[in-house]
Design brief:
CATH superfamily: Dynein light chain 2a, cytoplasmic
CATH topology: Beta-Lactamase
Number of domains: 1
CATH class: Alpha Beta
Oligomer: single chain
Strand order of the largest sheet: 3-2-6-5-4
Number of helices: 3
Structural class: alpha+beta
Shape: globular
Radius of gyration: 14 Å
Number of strands: 7
CATH architecture: 2-Layer Sandwich
Length: 130
C-alpha cells in the first residue's frame, strides 16, 4: 500500500482532528495504517510513547478482527478500552487506516464517538492509496 498524502491534505486532517476531537477535550488523536505505521498525529503525548502505541493499536485491531470472524462477524469497526484515568477509542477509517483517540474520564464517550465519526467521514477522501 502506498499512501499519497499531500501537504494540503495533511493540514486538512490536522484541522479536522483539532476541530472535532482536541478542541472537545481529547488528549491525543492519531491515524495509523493496518501495519502500525503512524500516519498523522495531534495532541500532547510524547513521540517515544506514541510510536509503540501506534504499533500496538494496529495489532489490537488485527486481533479483534480475527475474534470478530470467529463469531461470524467480518470485522468490528470500533473498539473502546476504559481505564481508571485514561481511555482509548479506536475507529476504523477504512480497511487500511485506524483513528485512535486518547481521552480522560472528564470527556464523555458519546462526544468522542461523535467526533471520531466526523473525523472518519472527513478523513476518508483525504487518505488515498495508489
Amino acid at each position: 500500500m502506498d499512501l499519497i498524502l499531500s501537504r494540503d491534505s495533511a493540514k486538512q486532517l490536522e484541522r479536522i482532528i483539532n476541530n472535532e476531537l482536541l478542541d472537545k477535550g481529547v488528549t491525543h488523536a492519531f491515524i495509523v495504517d493496518s501495519s502500525g505505521n503512524l500516519i498523522l498525529e495531534r495532541g500532547s503525548l510524547p513521540l517515544e510513547d506514541l510510536l509503540p502505541l501506534a504499533a500496538l493499536s494496529a495489532a489490537n485491531f488485527g486481533a479483534s478482527e480475527r475474534m470478530a470472524q470467529l463469531i461470524g462477524e467480518s470485522d468490528f469497526t470500533l473498539l473502546f478500552h476504559k481505564g481508571t484515568r485514561q481511555n482509548i477509542h479506536f475507529a476504523r477509517v477504512s480497511r487500511e487506516f485506524i483513528l485512535v483517540t486518547l481521552f480522560s474520564n472528564d470527556v464523555p464517550l458519546g462526544l468522542v464517538r461523535l467526533g471520531s465519526g466526523k473525523v472518519t467521514q472527513q478523513a476518508l477522501p483525504l487518505l488515498r492509496c495508489g
